Inverse folding.
């Protein structure tokens, strides 16, 4: 079973993504509940490892997914590892071409559906980053590129265009 934790405005989105249970963090702190979890994927980084341990199963794992964990998290996790069954795991994605081919096939087949919040043309990348920095995106923020022929209007074959 999958439990999603989100704000009130995202409850329906998380349900449509397939969560079996949805907890609105504005109403309830899941780290104070009685449910135990095998894996916690931490996409926000707003709870301590101690709070997560309370709701993990004895062999449970916390996987930070925010980029906010930092070296302190890595060092603490390494120091705790020999003494605890519950673990905080470090994960660094290294996608391969084969991984991307599989993902593309799943998307084309409708097996998975990426959630896209907003799309910006490439020349509005600064605005896209500012939107992301607000921390409230409801999915991926996408930059689109103009077709190559539009980018190089007036260029002759073999000519290098910069700008």
């Amino acid at each position: 079973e999958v439990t999603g934790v989100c704000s009130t405005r995202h409850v329906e989105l998380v349900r449509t993504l397939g969560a079996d249970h949805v907890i609105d963090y504005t109403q309830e702190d899941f780290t104070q509940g009685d449910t135990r979890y095998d894996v916690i994927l931490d996409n926000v980084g707003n709870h301590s490892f101690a709070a997560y341990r309370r709701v993990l199963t004895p062999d449970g794992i916390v996987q930070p997914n925010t980029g906010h964990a930092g070296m302190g998290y890595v060092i603490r996790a390494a120091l705790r590892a020999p003494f605890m069954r519950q673990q905080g795991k470090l994960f660094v994605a290294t996608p391969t071409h084969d991984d991307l081919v599989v993902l593309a096939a799943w998307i084309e087949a409708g097996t998975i559906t990426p959630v896209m919040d907003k799309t910006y043309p490439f020349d509005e990348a600064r605005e896209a980053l500012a939107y992301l920095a607000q921390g409230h995106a409801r999915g991926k923020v996408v930059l689109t590129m103009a077709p190559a022929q539009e980018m190089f209007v007036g260029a002759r074959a073999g000519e290098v265009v910069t700008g």
User: Anything to note?
Assistant: The radius of gyration is 21 Å. Helices lie at 11-16, 49-55, 70-80, 97-109, 125-133, 148-151. The mean pLDDT is 83. The first helix runs from residue 11 to 16.
